[in-house]
């Protein structure tokens, strides 16, 4: 799939639209489950789900737009992060994970490329 930037027609608010081909039924079931889980999660350190809808060939997931890039890219660009930066990131990650665990949900794929920043530094 791919992600593109979208704009709400009425409000002008920016969002991210993740488009996935339906392909195998197993893949569609996983996407539907992910959407249902995202509906349960409301936390400042977890991307917000705005909407999700299906077409015959594709599934579209409309989410909060994060323009600050991935944690992995920041690490690779800087070579390393300062201890205070790592502490700030880990604090936010752990708050998000605790929120998920409180709702009996596990991420199962925690890695630097899955952590996004809302804005650039």
Automatic annotation (TrEMBL):
Keyword list, A-Z: ATP-binding, Kinase, Nucleotide-binding, Serine/threonine-protein kinase, Transferase
InterPro entries: CDPK_Ser/Thr_kinases (IPR050205), Kinase-like_dom_sf (IPR011009), Prot_kinase_dom (IPR000719)
Protein kinase domain ranges (all copies): 1-121
An MF annotation (GO) of this entry: protein serine/threonine kinase activity
SMART domains: S_TKc
Superkingdom: Eukaryota
Pfam families: Pkinase
Protein name: Protein kinase domain-containing protein
Gene source species: Pyrodinium bahamense
Lineage: Eukaryota, Sar, Alveolata, Dinophyceae, Gonyaulacales
């Amino acid at each position: 799939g791919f992600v593109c930037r979208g704009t709400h027609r009425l409000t002008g608010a920016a969002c991210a639209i993740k488009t996935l081909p339906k392909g195998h039924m197993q893949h569609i079931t996983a996407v539907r489950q992910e959407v249902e889980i995202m509906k349960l999660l409301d936390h400042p350190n977890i991307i917000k789900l705005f909407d999700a809808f299906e077409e015959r060939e594709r599934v579209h997931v409309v989410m909060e737009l994060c323009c600050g890039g991935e944690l992995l890219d920041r690490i690779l660009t800087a070579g390393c992060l300062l201890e205070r930066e790592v502490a700030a990131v880990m604090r936010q990650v752990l708050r998000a994970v605790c929120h998920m665990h409180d709702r009996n949900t596990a991420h199962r794929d925690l890695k630097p490329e899955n952590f996004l920043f809302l804005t650039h530094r």
